[in-house]
Amino acid sequence: MHIHILGICGTFMGSLAVLAKELGHHVTGSDANVYPPMSTQLQAQGIELTQGYDPVQLDPAPDVVVIGNALSRGNPAVEYVLNKGLPYVSGPQWLADHVLQGRWVLAVAGTHGKTTTSSMLAWVLEYAGMAPGFLIGGVPQNFAVSARLGDTPFFVVEADEYDSAFFDKRSKFVHYRPRTAILNNLEFDHADIFPDLPAIERQFHHLVRTIPSEGLVIHPTTEPALQRVIEMGCWTPVQTTGVDGQWQARLLSDDGSRFEVLFDGALQGTVDWNMTGQHNVANALATLAAARHVGVVPSMAIDGLSAFKSVKRRMEKVAEVHGITLYDDFAHHPTAIATTLDGLRKHIGDAPLIAVIEPRSNSMKLGAHRDGLPQSVVQADHVVWYAPANLGWDLAATVASSPVPTKVCDSLDAIIAEVKAQVKPGTHVVIMSNGGFGGLHGKLAEALQ
Predict the structure, then answer these.
(1) Last residue within a domain, chosen from 306, 332, 350
(2) Which residue range forms the structural domain that includes residue 233?
(3) Residue 439 annotated as binding?
(4) Is 112 annotated as a binding residue?
(5) Does 113 carry a binding-site annotation?
(6) 98 annotated ligand-binding residue
(7) Please, what's the b/e burial string for 4-24 (b: 16 or more CB within 10 A of its CB; e: otherwise)?
(8) Does 406 count as an annotated binding residue?
(9) What pTM does this model have?
């Protein structure tokens, strides 16, 4: 079967392409922007990519067109599909029908930490010999691919609350029908499709409605929005994590790199790993609860976590030049920026820390999170903000109240000049964006040489 994927370089759609190829289909695809790590992964799998949406790519007609949620009416390829009456489907629907049907699905949902937690969970199951399938919105370094079918009943999926397609405005995760569900946290996000937090809570409750009564819901005790979701009605056993939860962590190091795990008050073991930050400790507790639900004893799961290598673009060290360390990170929401910088700060102590931030997500472009930005960077010593001409709101005015010295730049060259002027040996520079950031990481490393 020939499957053509529109919007193939998005993390979800690219992973879907890998699974379709593994199922034996002929897979092609296109995107407006073709960039790593997804483009590299797809080309390595022998998947043919086209830049842009010229309808000529749909002739001869594929058997089915999978349409990504970034595409809307007016897109030339979408209009061609509709006018010619070609069969089309959303990515989440295709995944549910062709991959997830009949499997024990473990879904990881939440505003932050989905990619890291689903990577942890897939790895812990792998470590325990359960060889799960998975689809993750990033590339876990323990696997080097973002998706695989697996040949056991278990399948780990990163369960996103973003909408499914221009013709299906339900959240992606309502298609997945998990038996084990992690709800990590819940804040306002995706301002381009959700008017307010209650609208997102409603979608999360749609997910809760699909979880069987013999399944399990896992959530932290510290999230009022998730508490409200559960109070709308829950027909499934619940386990809690964190403060006052059934699963708790006792920190043995400030940066979260060593901690004891307790379940119902009983010590289960000690995680000693190369991850940092309170957010990753929380991710680990949810992972342990989910793994136990499918039969992995906590002591083995803890050993698995200690061998976990994180995810590409999640505090990934990308270069070290003359004693200056560069990291790539995906954080693009004030809470994620704050927790990531806090984890790094606790890890590096008093060393100089520079953050370079691109407000690139749709919510950021709409200015939905701007009030949280000035305080999100308090752990940095210096912050460089990128304000491209098309941002649509005054970033400089917004961050003027930040307690941290800041510089707003309108080009990559200006960012590189500013960082060069600030760094000295021993400085840590973290570059935060949910896109390619124009290849800034490589250009900066070169400039520092």
Answers:
(1) 306
(2) 102-306
(3) no
(4) yes
(5) yes
(6) no
(7) bbbbbbbbbbbbbbbbbbbee
(8) no
(9) 0.81
